[in-house]
Design a protein that fits this description.
The complex is a heterodimer. The two termini of chain A are 29 Å apart. The radius of gyration of chain A is 21 Å and the shape is globular. By secondary structure, chain A is of the alpha/beta class. In chain A, helix 5 packs across helix 7. Chain A is built from twelve helices and 13 strands. In chain B, the strands form two sheets. An eight-stranded mixed beta sheet of chain B has the order 6-7-8-3-9-10-12-11, with helices on both faces. A four-stranded antiparallel beta sheet of chain B has the order 2-1-4-5. Chain B is globular, with a radius of gyration of 21 Å. The longest helix of chain B has 18 residues. Helix content of chain B is 30%, strand content 23%. Chain B is an alpha/beta fold. Chain B has a domain of 81 residues. The chains are: A alpha/beta, B alpha/beta. At the A-B interface, helix 7, helix 8, helix 9, helix 10 and helix 11 of A face helix 6, helix 7 and helix 9 of B.
């Protein structure tokens, strides 16, 4: 799997929002690639730019006020940012699909699930209506919705939260996409249902071989499903590595902070080690490293020098001055 | 340790309209259906369960923000179930609540000073004391006195939750019901608020009922835990014992479903089938039998009662756990 060429490459992506009170640098220099059949996790807190990264790939940034000011999104070698809206529409939902956090607001409440699914299928595939309906039944079976033929006639509100998310996944998979972007797909669900959905995604990926970009704030979900992880803070990636090495050997102080602030059920500590302070205002980022004001390990130069990405180990990259002097700087 | 709160066979049934448009047939949603527990002074009882299990309704019924259908609530040994009006209002001074959504629970048109001093005004605390108290409250929750004149929208989620906490503590209550106080917050902020709540508990000798769906947070903060499913407590016990050795199949499934932030842990996952049944039409017998991997005939007909399953006070409601009789 390692030697395969990436299906999706994001290079130097910058997405900014131009608001009255200033420029919000929501995504500020994101690089990653993903290979077929791989799951890449993007982790971060609210406002870290993880969802905007996904929306930028899909070209769904509302403009104005948003604008992708720089970067490339290479899908099978072609830059999506240079495509026309018409070309993009052929890709969205067919080659790259997306599922969202809240299935209730992303499904149309006044149409039956059948109508919505058939619409997706007919838009992209050369099928007639009854073939599309059969395909819809097939998809409902695939995602484990019982009595699929009858359930197709239901409206979204007649499904439970977990079932609705299954419907969303079925729709996203309608045209066998090569990349599935899952934006917090289990955040709104209860843990037992979350376990079902994660298992389902895992099974589907094995069967269909698509690449998954999993956006989440939950390091537990990352540990469970991801091969590689990118940790984001204030619009920038701060650490990028394989999932196992992130948990075994985290390098960035922000990652340390995140890991220490989650209570663990296997051991009990007297006190949680919280990260002090709050994330910065993206309109007025501090000079130097964005995390420096909250960092326990901040040095004097952290307040003035914005660190570049340093390779600390094979396929382990960190944006932190703690590592910069000793290692080779690979990009600025 | 003395008992501060005792709840006996508490029930809250909500009438809802039936499915048919043309008949006046009413259904009932049994949100809380026979819950009993005690809370000791100074301890934290965690109330966990998935959405719709009745944990929030239990909290609100104790405060009598919703009137219980039946059952008894004893606060400091006194039966408060029938308390009404002025008598109940006075008692609320001793029992406060912190809400989940720090955006919806603060009045956007009031300054922080007005929000925090409001409960003191209602209970006729003189103005001079109010100011002194306000400054102290802001200080203990980690806000500064210049925040007083600001409005809620000027604060981040974590700060708003601190304001909610300050308001809950304004009248020096004994019991604080925390209804998902950290669920809306980012993990790094969540840890700050959890730490703050622990510090305040120590400083003011508070008793918490901590309602949450996040099992790891509950594990961290609670002394004892009660696990709820469809309006009933299915298992309860000391936090360490219950997490290490869960007896009820639902607790086992719930614990095994938490994604652990460590890929080296290979967990034997019990994935329960299906969805939570509707509380307006709960299954007969044991309410969990429709999703339970071990369900047998008896589970479909008889609803098991809580029974002692360890010498440490752990109780579970399942036909297939062995009862442990305490030896004296």
């Amino acid at each position: 799997m390692k030697d395969e060429t990436p299906i999706l490459q994001v290079k130097q992506l910058h997405t900014h929002f131009f608001s009255k009170s200033g420029v919000v640098k929501a995504v500020d220099g994101v690089n990653f690639d993903i290979k077929p059949g791989e799951t890449l996790g993007i982790v971060g807190e609210s406002g870290s730019g993880k969802s905007i990264t996904a929306m930028s790939i899909m070209r769904l940034i509302p403009s104005p006020p948003g604008k992708i000011v720089n970067g490339e999104v290479l899908f099978k070698g072609e830059d999506l940012l240079k495509k026309s809206e018409k070309q993009m529409r052929k890709i969205r939902g067919k080659e790259i699909s997306m599922i969202f956090q809240d299935p209730m607001t992303s499904l149309n409440p006044v149409l039956t699930v059948e109508k919505q699914m058939i619409e997706t299928i007919l838009t992209h595939e050369n099928m007639n209506k009854s073939q599309a309906r059969e395909r819809a039944v097939e998809l409902m079976d695939l995602v484990g919705i019982p009595e699929s033929r009858n359930r197709l006639k239901n409206y979204p509100h007649e499904f439970s939260g977990g079932m609705r998310q299954r419907v969303m996944i079925a729709m996203a998979l309608a045209c066998n996409p090569e990349v599935l972007i899952a934006d917090e797909p289990t955040t709104a669900l209860d843990v037992t249902i979350q376990a079902q959905i994660l298992e389902l995604l895992n099974k589907l990926q094995k069967e269909l071989g698509m690449a998954i970009v999993m956006i989440t704030h939950d390091l537990g979900v990352v540990a469970e499903v991801c091969d590689r992880v990118m940790v984001m803070y204030a619009g920038k990636p701060v650490e990028f590595t394989e999932a196992n090495s992130l948990f075994a050997n985290p390098k960035h102080p922000y990652t340390w902070g995140l890991m220490n602030s989650i209570p663990k059920i296997t051991s009990k500590k007297e006190k949680l080690e919280a990260i002090e302070g709050a994330p910065p205002d993206l309109r007025a980022l501090p000079q130097g490293c964005s995390f420096a004001p909250r960092c326990k390990h901040a040095m004097e130069q952290c307040l003035t020098i914005d660190p570049s990405i340093t390779k600390v180990e094979e396929s382990h990259h960190v944006r932190c001055l703690l590592y910069e002097e000793t290692e080779k700087v690979i990009s600025t | 340790m003395s008992t501060l709160l005792e709840v006996k066979d508490l029930k809250k049934h909500f009438p809802v309209k039936g499915d048919s448009l043309f008949t006046k047939e009413m259904k009932t949603v049994k949100a809380v259906d026979g819950v009993s527990f005690t809370v000791n002074k100074g301890e934290t009882l965690g109330l966990v369960g998935e959405s719709g299990c009745g944990k929030s309704t239990t909290g609100r019924t104790i405060l009598k923000l919703v009137e219980p259908t039946s059952g008894e609530i004893y606060f400091r040994g006194e039966n408060i179930t029938s308390f009404q009006g002025e008598k109940m209002r006075k008692l609320r001074k001793e029992m406060q609540i912190i809400f989940q959504d720090p955006y919806a629970s603060l009045n956007p048109r009031k300054t922080i000073e007005q929000i925090i001093t409001e409960p003191m005004k209602i209970f006729n605390i003189p103005k001079r004391d109010r100011n002194k108290k306000l400054n102290r409250l802001l200080d203990v929750v980690g806000l500064s006195s210049y925040h007083k004149v600001r409005y809620p929208h000027e604060f981040s989620g974590g700060q708003r939750q601190r304001i909610g906490i300050a308001r809950a503590l304004a009248l020096e209550p004994e019991l604080v019901i925390c209804d998902e106080p950290v669920s809306a917050l980012d993990v790094s902020i969540q840890a700050q608020v959890v730490n703050l709540m622990e510090d305040l508990q120590e400083e003011f000798n508070l008793t918490y009922i901590f309602i949450a769906h996040d099992l790891s947070v509950v594990h961290h903060i609670s002394d004892r835990v009660a696990v709820m499913y469809l309006g009933q407590i299915v298992e309860t016990g000391q936090v360490d014992e219950l997490y290490k050795n869960p007896k009820h199949p639902y607790t086992q499934a719930l614990l095994s479903a938490i994604p652990e932030a460590d890929p080296t842990i290979q967990k034997e996952r019990i994935v329960v089938k299906g969805d939570l049944p509707s509380p307006s039409n709960p299954p007969q017998g044991c309410k969990f039998h429709t999703r339970c991997p071990y369900a047998e005939e008896i589970c479909r007909t008889v609803n098991p009662a809580l029974k002692q399953v360890s010498t440490g006070g752990q109780q579970a409601a399942c036909h297939f756990v062995k009862e442990v009789v305490e030896e004296y």
